[in-house]
Amino acid sequence: MNYFLELLPSLLSGLKMTLGVFFFTIIGSIPLGIIVSLGMKSEYFTIRWLINGYIWIMRGTPLLLQLIFVYYGLGMMGISFPRFEAAIIAFIINYAAYLAEIFRGGLQSVPRGQYDAAKVLGFTKIQTFFKIVLPQVIKIVVPSFGNEVINLVKDTSLVYVIGLGDILRAGNIAASRDVTLIPYLLVGLIYLIMTAIVTVLLRRTEKRLNIWR
Amino acid sequence: MVSMKKKIVVNSIIGLLFVGIVVWLVIGLSAGAKHNSQANQETSKTDEWQRIKQDKQITICLDDTFVPMGFRDKDGKIVGFDVDLANAVFKTMGITVKWQPIDWSMKETELNTGNIDAIWNGYTKTAAREKQVAFSNTYHNATQVLVTLKKNNINSFSDMQDKVLGDQTASSGDESFNQHPKVLKQYVKDQKVVGYDTFDKAFNDLNAGRIDGLLIDEDYARYYVAHQTNPKNYTVTVGGFSVDETAVGFRKSDNQLRQAVNQTLSQFKKDGRMKHIENKWFSN
């Protein structure tokens, strides 16, 4: 117990990095994911091809590799971001690709007839999307979206490769300093608490959205 | 519905833009690669010494899990032998050190992309590394030793016949292991080694019997054995590996910086300050 209290400050400072990456990625990847999913239905084949290529690359290569590329690779080409910003950029473009596929599934489940009905009723395209389609899509995608969010909690640990100190690295440092595995146990516990909070929040959202089903 | 004409126009604009970006990226990449190979050919980049002196700050990287050379204490402060030494060296020049934790396998990339100015963290001189970085004079010597469990009765490198060996990936020990196969590699099982990212995990596997021996720098061996619940259970064997010279890594272009550090290091050796810091971290 004493040891736990001794470790807590360093673990908490690592937790700050983990949460920072988590929240910025969520905030950035949702709008980007929606835009990308709309682009997949574009009437211009070039846009569709580009987006499919983007999704193929993002889902087809490890996130770790993408982090290395954004930080070191682009750095070599003269486009250098600070460490934290590089991590956020890599995470956002990666997660936006996964989310776009989820949103696409949601968009496809809205029947074609609703678009026609909205048109007849005099809705503009933008109104149709925000007032009719989006609310239904949100309801449909919440469970699979939740999956990605929980994955993200754990994926944040990859930022070690560009020298950022997240909670897992804090655990690593303590483990090699004190030659014991206990820090890992604590780190695991903190991850569990984080995913528990995310799970509860997602369940609640789902329930609330079910009211008008 | 969008008219056919508009479709063609928009498609070709987007297509052209895309091709443009790809061409720009390829040019940028090849320029970057060229730049990089030039950086390796000695002094093509400018010397950063003026900037460091002006800012009164230098960025040095470390793997903050590297005990006892550079790591974090319980309050999260970066401490260690190399940390004390580097801080003292640059203090004499009126420069403060900014310690940047990095992933150890990326150290040379960090240095040559200019994210950091020096690698100072138990960094051993090797032939492969000398192609990438310029080393200071040696300030510390250590050899690679074999740590085994006493009950297994392994007292020489040849006792490792058909036994499983572990080491740290991309460490200098790993490099000497592969470069001098006669010393140890010829004995171990399948001539292969189990690579760990940190030594604490390797020690765990040693205790659990999943590996029979661990190849490790003697400074770390001393620290880790001393921190095990029962230090008497281990045997430390010094074999035929040559002595590793620990030095500071700089960019090849930073001659003035390297000379300044070399001067201060030899001064520290003469006036006993080096000994003082060594005693603090390596005596047991």
TrEMBL record, chain A:
<dbReference type="GO" id="GO:0043190">
    <property type="term" value="C:ATP-binding cassette (ABC) transporter complex"/>
</dbReference>
<comment type="similarity">
    <text>Belongs to the binding-protein-dependent transport system permease family.</text>
</comment>
<dbReference type="GO" id="GO:0022857">
    <property type="term" value="F:transmembrane transporter activity"/>
</dbReference>
<keyword id="KW-0472">Membrane</keyword>
<keyword id="KW-1003">Cell membrane</keyword>
<protein>
    <submittedName>
        <fullName>ABC transporter membrane-spanning permease-glutamine transport</fullName>
    </submittedName>
</protein>
<keyword id="KW-0813">Transport</keyword>
<dbReference type="InterPro" id="IPR010065">
    <property type="entry name" value="AA_ABC_transptr_permease_3TM"/>
</dbReference>
<feature type="transmembrane region" description="Helical">
    <location>
        <begin position="181"/>
        <end position="202"/>
    </location>
</feature>
<feature type="transmembrane region" description="Helical">
    <location>
        <begin position="20"/>
        <end position="39"/>
    </location>
</feature>
<dbReference type="InterPro" id="IPR035906">
    <property type="entry name" value="MetI-like_sf"/>
</dbReference>
<keyword id="KW-0029">Amino-acid transport</keyword>
<dbReference type="Pfam" id="PF00528">
    <property type="entry name" value="BPD_transp_1"/>
</dbReference>
<dbReference type="InterPro" id="IPR043429">
    <property type="entry name" value="ArtM/GltK/GlnP/TcyL/YhdX-like"/>
</dbReference>
<feature type="transmembrane region" description="Helical">
    <location>
        <begin position="86"/>
        <end position="103"/>
    </location>
</feature>
<feature type="transmembrane region" description="Helical">
    <location>
        <begin position="51"/>
        <end position="74"/>
    </location>
</feature>
<feature type="domain" description="ABC transmembrane type-1">
    <location>
        <begin position="15"/>
        <end position="202"/>
    </location>
</feature>
<keyword id="KW-0812">Transmembrane</keyword>
<dbReference type="GO" id="GO:0006865">
    <property type="term" value="P:amino acid transport"/>
</dbReference>
<keyword id="KW-1133">Transmembrane helix</keyword>
<dbReference type="InterPro" id="IPR000515">
    <property type="entry name" value="MetI-like"/>
</dbReference>
